[in-house]
Amino acid sequence: MALWADKYQPKALDKFVLHKGIADNLKKLVATGDCPHTLFYGPPGAGKRTLVMALLREIYGPGAEKIRVETRPWTIELPTRKLELELTTVSSNYHVELSPGDVGGSNDRYVVQEIIKDLAKNRPLDVATGNKGFKVLVLNEVDRLSREAQQSLRRTMEKYSAGCRLVMTCANISKVMDPVRSRCLCVRVAAPSSEVVQEQLYAVARKEALQVCRVQQCPLREDQAVAPADWEAYIAEIAGDIMAEQSAKKLYQVRGKLYELLANCIPPELLLRTLLLELLKKLDDEIKARPRATPDPRADITELAARYEHRLQEGQKPIFHIEAFVAQFMSRYKNWQLTAFG
Amino acid sequence: MTVAQPWVEKYRPRNVDEVAHQEEVVSTLKRSLETANLPHLLFYGPPGTGKTSTALAIARQLYGPELMKTRVMELNASDERGINVVRKKVKSFAAAAVGAPAAGYPCPPYKLLILDEADSMTQDAQNALRRTMEQYSKVTRFCFICNYVSRIIEPLASRCAKFRFRPLHQGVMRDRIEFICARESVSLDPEAFQLLASISGGDLRKAVTTLQSAVRLSGGSVDRQSILDVSGEIPQAAITRLLAACRSGVFDNVQQQVTDLIAEGYPAQQVLLQLQAEVLAAPDAPDAPDAVPARPRALVCEALAQCDKALQDGADEFLQLLHVGAQVQRALAAA
After folding, report:
1. CATH homologous superfamily of A4-188
2. Ordered DSSP codes for B8-62
3. Under an 8 A CB cutoff, do B1 and A133 touch?
4. Where is each AAA+ ATPase domain found (chain B) (predicted)?
5. Which of B120, B251, B317 is the closest to A172 by Cβ?
């Protein structure tokens, strides 16, 4: 049995319900035969990759769906040393997909300068039908590329545009530099509103004759609890800890929990953001419970989170910054309680 | 299959005369071109005002398309330009003797080295150029192109004739855009042009790229909406809602608006830009409705600037926008 997320994923551009406007525009683009470099941006889960796959299918026909996954080692000759790295690519006869950000560090520059250039340089083989005279390189998460890597991408985009088109996706377009953006057709992919999500869920449920949630219980109750992801629950627990007691001892306990989350590969930015949202929610409850005119502490707390997340990007070890945020929050929160409630 | 050329390349000016709007620069350069006696050049100004185009046009007029290949070298930021490159590649190009001139062009006895985006070169690399420039000035002229003249070290700047390129005003832009539209048989609404001009802010390249994207998506006739779709501009209503939420003084409203903006996938820096425009456009007389007096205005601008820097460093969009929202709210509440 296929996962429903896969089963109901639209495969062709005319099957799109959510991003119908975008899909229609993409169809027009392909029809004119002039496909520019494209950059899809939008929050995670909005459907960027689904659009990319459908676009490929539109250009090359079903052949683009026969994919193979390869992990192959690359050796790059640098003037001073030899760099060896492994990169996973997903490719069909017509396209190659890779996430250059995975390489990490400052090495991603060489991925762009050598590997991507290499892939872009080789003209596509003449594969009978469906050949458009160019191939497509799909680059995922270009926002994770360093500035140097993006600078190098610029030149590659112009030089090899005759035989290769880049299709890129990213979540945070602020991190993609202007010169790269201005060379692409930028397509914004918005997240669906909750009504649309609901509609789709109903549609799926109808088709599946409502076997929904037989895991837990059936039929669903009005107040059916949806279990949050365990890491989210864990962060909520941390938020509760911090609100309950503000002391060095507590900070030490929280540190252990933070370490555990980081060790389980929860990205530190996400951790900090979720933690802030949980704290804001709890503060909100507290303010509502005691409706006296008090200064709203939430702006201050947001400022703290924004400041420490910014530093986290520049620094080396995330734990310092997250812990600093927690400590600062404890101090502010205690002060606020003293002034607000005496 | 012919590969469609981007219009920016297709309609790049071919000679100095064609360069739009930069009258002073053009007239000075034309005189130098007549005598074929060129100083070292330094072009600076905002993006899309014709700096690179002018440099390439000079090269073409001096040497003609054939000789250009050997006499002109162009290096931009996408080429490796560390100090090693300056020491080897640049120096060997600068030192080489010039070949025979081509017929029909002035072909002065020197080569042209164009360093595009020179402000992204390191200080060391720039320093390494100083001596090279003087040593080989008989056979090589340098042309530096940059956005920020302050990033070019003083010793280099003082060796060059400086030319400032101004942002294009609407009239000039209209001429050029209409010219392209006529050539490509595209019909453009006057309203759409207005929008195009205001989005591009004097950057002709941006205007042309936006226009071409719009044409690709919506075919021969371009209206306001299709420009809006491709420009990445945020609908005014969303920004107005955000500002209204800030005015309301309730933190929840701000959080809601920011969450919505992020879910829609709008670029955060664009939000800042349009929020700034909105705040600056508000009346500053204290008794006017929705007024933003001078002090909060300054505070808002500072918050926006700091946020832009943080975003540039790669900070999280949601946290930064929420922070800005809270700051704006506080500034307005203090008024």
Report:
1. P-loop containing nucleotide triphosphate hydrolases (3.40.50.300)
2. HHHT--SSGGGS-S-HHHHHHHHHHHHHT----EEEE-STTSSHHHHHHHHHHHH
3. yes
4. 37-169
5. B317
